[in-house]
């Protein structure tokens, strides 16, 4: 059976591009998008990269560059980015029979039945259509395997030979041409090869993607396990990574944020933890899972010049696996009260749920009555479905639990936040004459 060509479609500088869609005055200017509390750089336009602004650099270290070069710095607008991501994925689904979203700004797209020349034309059509429907520029890498498609996409973004067109099609490369390309790719740039494995491979003379491809299977299996062996096979053009049209359910989910200001009171910490748990509950229900354990953690600032430093966490075994938000919140509040210490200024809190199982696989109350009974579970499920539906339709947090509070003055600092143009009527784009 002939292999199906696969394309990796990846948005260019996604967060910065989203800001430019609704603010054309940003085009051609250096743009950076900041992390929670406007602390670090999490996205950069090409113009910002050209100034030497690195990913993850703290803002205070580049204030002189921002001022000198009139860099546009924007707070992260996750609501807008999520909405634009959904638009991008919906557009891709009109252009290919099989689309596998991989992250917020990239997806694998399978294109069976295309010749190499037709693939080039269709890749250009993908770029043009996504740009027309969303305003987001994308690059397209094509090959016979996911790993090679990832590498091709990297070449489409970075290699001057392909960068102008934004398309790199490896399906029409001869083996010698492909080997030459792989010889110019550092092993650490291969998808799935992390820093620790990169150091190990370099110590053994494996410096490039070509070197990795040529290593004996036995050595790869012994030193890099089956995962590394599959990566090498993928570099040889042998598909080993399956299509995942439905993302696999996560085994753990965590929600954590730094506060916009330091907080002291248990009441405000409870508000924050309640908000985080509510979001965890939504995520659990979205993947049809229930949690068996929960961890609550808090900490003061690691960089405080004065005052006591404190960090603590507590793990709770839930009486019964659940995704019912009020029950999750009740357990989280109980855990928080045990690790809270008065008189300290807290900078961050978070909640993680663990030991997730499918909601259909949980053990019900032995006698079918009380909180663990099927009737109560079904009633709670319907209640949460209604709440989730309203919040999805009207905006996150439209319906929330009382302990979440109403003012939430501890919320993260976002001093330059763009509008939620695509999800809020009161923030829709305005055009004046």
How are the SSEs placed, and which strands pair?
Blueprint lengths: L5 E6 L2 H9 L8 E4 L6 E4 L1 H5 L12 H6 L3 E4 L2 H16 L4 E6 L2 E5 L5 H19 L3 E6 L2 H13 L1 H4 L3 E3 L5 H9 L11 H9 L5 H6 L2 H19 L17 E11 L2 H21 L2 E12 L10 E12 L2 H15 L6 E9 L2 E2 L15 H21 L39
Parallel strand pairs: 2-4, 7-8
Antiparallel strand pairs: 1-6, 1-7, 2-3, 5-6, 9-12, 10-11, 10-12, 10-13
Give an overview in words:
Helix content is 40%, strand content 19%. It contains 14 helices and 13 strands. The strands form three sheets. The chain has a five-stranded mixed beta sheet with strand order 5-6-1-7-8. Strands 9, 10, 11, 12 and 13 form a five-stranded antiparallel beta sheet that branches. It has a three-stranded mixed beta sheet with strand order 3-2-4. Helix 4 runs antiparallel to helix 5 and helix 12 runs antiparallel to helix 13. It is globular and about 65 Å long. The relative contact order is 0.11. The mean pLDDT is 88.
């Amino acid at each position: 059976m002939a292999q199906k060509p696969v394309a990796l479609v990846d948005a260019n500088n996604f967060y910065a591009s989203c800001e430019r869609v609704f603010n054309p005055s940003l085009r051609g200017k250096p743009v950076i998008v900041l992390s929670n509390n406007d602390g670090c750089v999490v996205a950069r336009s090409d113009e910002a990269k050209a100034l030497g602004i690195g990913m993850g650099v703290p803002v205070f270290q580049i204030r002189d560059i921002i001022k000198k070069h009139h860099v546009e710095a924007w707070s992260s607008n996750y609501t807008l980015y999520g909405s634009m991501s959904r638009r991008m994925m919906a557009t891709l689904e009109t252009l290919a029979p099989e689309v596998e979203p991989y992250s917020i700004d990239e997806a694998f797209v399978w294109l069976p039945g295309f010749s190499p020349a037709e693939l080039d034309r269709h890749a250009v059509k993908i770029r043009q259509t996504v740009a027309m429907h969303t305003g987001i520029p994308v690059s397209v890498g094509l090959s016979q395997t996911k790993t090679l498609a990832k590498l091709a996409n990297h070449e489409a973004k970075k290699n001057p030979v392909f960068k102008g067109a934004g398309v790199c099609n490896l399906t029409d490369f001869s083996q010698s041409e492909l080997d030459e390309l792989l010889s110019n790719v550092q092993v650490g740039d291969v998808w799935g090869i992390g820093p620790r494995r990169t150091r190990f491979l370099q110590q053994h003379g494996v410096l490039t993607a070509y070197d990795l491809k040529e290593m004996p299977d036995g050595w790869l299996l012994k030193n890099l396990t089956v995962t590394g062996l599959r990566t090498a096979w993928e570099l040889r053009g042998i598909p080993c990574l399956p299509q995942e049209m439905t993302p696999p359910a996560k085994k753990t989910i965590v929600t954590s944020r730094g506060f916009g200001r330091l907080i002291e009171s248990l009441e405000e910490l409870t508000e924050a933890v309640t908000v985080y748990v509510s979001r965890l509950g939504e995520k659990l229900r979205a993947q049809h899972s229930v949690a068996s354990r929960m961890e609550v953690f808090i900490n003061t600032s690691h960089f405080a010049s004065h005052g006591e430093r404190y960090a603590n966490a507590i793990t709770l075994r839930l009486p019964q696996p659940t995704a019912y938000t009020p029950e999750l919140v009740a357990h989280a509040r109980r855990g928080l009260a045990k690790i809270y210490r008065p008189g300290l200024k807290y900078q961050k809190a978070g909640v993680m749920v663990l030991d997730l199982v499918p909601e259909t696989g949980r053990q019900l109350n032995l006698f079918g009555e009380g909180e663990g009974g099927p009737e109560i579970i079904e009633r709670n499920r319907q209640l949460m479905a209604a709440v989730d539906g309203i919040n999805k339709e009207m905006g996150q947090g439209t319906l929330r639990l009382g302990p979440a509070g109403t003012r939430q003055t501890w919320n993260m600092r976002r001093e330059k936040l763009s509008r939620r143009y695509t999800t809020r009527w009161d923030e829709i784009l305005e055009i004046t004459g």
